[in-house]
């Protein structure tokens, strides 16, 4: 998996990077090491850029789409497990799968709301709000990449990526 960006891609990303807390421009602050796990459970390390808001001073990590906030496994692994009806051998353990499924049960409503909101804004048509298929269901039906894309949009819209109390309840 290649997470590196060209300098042109970094400059483009920096130009449009606004603070989710206050909406002001952010600048590169530092980098930090972050690990992720593949489908086989192997651990890999990458460097994640940290951005600091020039206005409010808050620091945010700039995660690649393939890595979900507060999750160690790649988005495609989580997505595969959420779509699967049975546990894959050699993958995440059963407790991790229970946490992921519980998290997704909670996050599904937020992702649906964000995607509907974006759709309404983009199309300007309220009558498209309630159709046969919700935006999240449509994305899930089109194959891979739906989890990373939907969560990125949710987080960028200011919605949380996890429930702190859920982690303590599920252990």
Short structural summary:
43% of the residues lie in helices and 16% in strands.
Q: What would you call the structural class?
A: alpha+beta
Apparent shape: flat
Mean pLDDT: 78
Strands ordered across the widest β-sheet: 1-2-3
Measured on Cα atoms, how large is the radius of gyration?
17 Å
Number of beta-strand segments = 3
How do the SSEs run, as a string of H and E? HEEEHHHHH
Count of all domains: 2
The tally of helices reads 6
Q: In terms of per-residue confidence, which ranges show pLDDT below 50 for 5 or more consecutive residues? A: 164-171
Q: Span from first to last CA?
A: 30 Å
Major β-sheet profile: 3 strands, antiparallel
Q: What is the beta-strand fraction?
A: 15-25%
Structure write-up:
The protein has 171 residues and is an alpha+beta fold. 43% of the residues lie in helices and 16% in strands. The protein is built from 6 helices and 3 strands, in the order H-E-E-E-H-H-H-H-H. Strands 1-2-3 form a 3-stranded antiparallel sheet, with no helix packed on it. A hairpin with a 5-residue loop joins strand 1 (26-37) and strand 2.
């Amino acid at each position: 998996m290649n997470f590196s960006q060209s300098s042109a891609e970094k400059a483009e990303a920096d130009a449009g990077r606004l603070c989710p807390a206050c909406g002001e421009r952010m600048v590169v602050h530092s980098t930090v090491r972050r690990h992720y796990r593949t489908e086989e459970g192997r651990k890999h390390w990458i460097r994640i850029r940290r951005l600091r808001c020039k206005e409010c001073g808050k620091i945010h990590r700039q995660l690649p789409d393939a890595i979900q906030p507060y999750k160690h496994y790649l988005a495609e692994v989580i997505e595969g497990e959420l779509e699967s009806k049975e546990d894959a051998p050699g993958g995440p353990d059963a407790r991790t799968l229970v946490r992921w499924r519980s998290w997704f049960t909670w996050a599904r409503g937020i992702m649906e709301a964000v995607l509907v909101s974006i759709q309404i804004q983009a199309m300007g048509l309220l009558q498209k709000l309630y159709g046969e298929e919700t935006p999240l269901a449509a994305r899930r039906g089109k194959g891979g990449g739906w989890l990373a894309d939907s969560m990125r949009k949710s987080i960028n819209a200011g919605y949380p990526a996890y429930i702190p109390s859920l982690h303590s309840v599920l252990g």
